[in-house]
Specification:
single chain; about 110 residues; alpha+beta; two-stranded antiparallel sheet; about 40% helix
Length: about 110
């Protein structure tokens, strides 16, 4: 594993820990941009608090990603744009030099 990969791994783990801490404080944190919103859990049978999760997160997108047996990651996004950018950043990329190799040939032979 290279130094850059190790640093990225450490940064990703630190972000996960920070997001878990925010969730424990009843905050939702956008997985891409880091925007947060405070909210209260809804309790069945009681009146909804003014900052209920279902109200505070209106317009947000929650994605559940299965990691394996009994392991599910929850990802919250404040907008479709953040979800799209997060997905694009995780998708494998074809190296630019490879794509340029298929460029148009300017000589007519």
């Amino acid at each position: 594993m290279s130094e850059v990969q190790m640093i990225l791994l450490i940064l990703a783990r630190a972000r996960q820990m920070w997001e878990a801490k925010m969730r424990r404080r009843n905050q939702a944190v956008c997985r891409f941009c880091g925007r947060g919103v405070e909210c209260s859990d809804c309790m069945g049978g009681f009146a909804l608090p003014h900052d209920a999760r279902c109200k505070a997160m209106k317009g947000w997108i929650s994605v559940y990603q299965w990691q394996g047996m009994g392991s599910v990651d929850r990802h919250d996004f404040c907008s479709l744009t953040c979800l799209q950018n997060w997905g694009d950043a995780r998708a494998p990329r074809v190296p630019e030099v490879f794509l340029k190799a298929f460029g148009e040939n300017k000589t007519n032979t």
